[in-house]
Every structure is written in structure tokens, then in C-alpha cells.
What does this fold into?
Amino acid sequence: MRRVILRLVSFAILVALIAACAAPAGPSTTRLEQVVDGITIGLELPLSPKLNAAQDFVISLADAQGKPIDNASVYIDLLMPAMPMGTNRPVASSEGKGRYLAQAAYTMTGEWEVTVFVELGGVTHKAVFTQQVSAPTAAP
It folds into this structure.
């Protein structure tokens, strides 16, 4: 009987450990949004961006009625106001349904501005978002 109880307790601990490992880690991005000239410009940024590694910047566009905008030219400008580093303006590729993808890298820690430029119908619209980039934390 004691052996059966010990096996059941061991099994319960094993199931709890497996469940803990399978639990979702939480979101890895944050979504910011601005309305500029009737266009909703959304930007998904990594929550904990890595230095000197390509990061995905997902831009979404919608008109005043909430319909996705697919026929725009979109690029971002990644700038560190405290220490200008030169031009970093990747062009975003269209993924359809109002979504665009650009990749860029942060080169140092600090506050960064991500400006999204949207060229549509001969007019340029822009939205400026900020992101704090922190030093990587050491593993325990």
C-alpha cells in the first residue's frame, strides 16, 4: 500500500512538473497604435529586444472605417535620440491584410524612436513610437 501511495505521489509531481514546463511564457511583443490623418498605424515591437540581432517590426494599417490598407509604401526609421548612429531605414514588405514587416537591429541600450512612414496616395504619414532597450540580464 505504501508503495502505491509513493508511486501516486511521484506521478503527481511528474505531472505538475510537465504542466509547469508547458505553461505559456507570455507575450513576447507589445502593440502600440496611433491614428494619423484618419489612418490607424499599429506597431508590434519586441518586449525584450536583443542587441545587434534582427528584430521583427510588424506594422498594421487601417483606414477610418477599420479596413486594412494594402497598397501603401511603408518603411521605418530607427533612431536613438541620445546618440545618433546614422541612417537605419528598412523598407517593410507587405504581408497582406494591412500587415507589413520590417527588420532592424538595436545597436545599444537606451531609448529609441521607431518612426513609421506610410506613403499612400502621394502623401506621407508618420507615427513616432518609443522603445526602451535594456541590457540583457545574466542567467541565474
User: Anything to note?
Assistant: The first strand starts at residue 29 and ends at 36. Residues 109 and 133 are 5 Å apart (CA to CA).
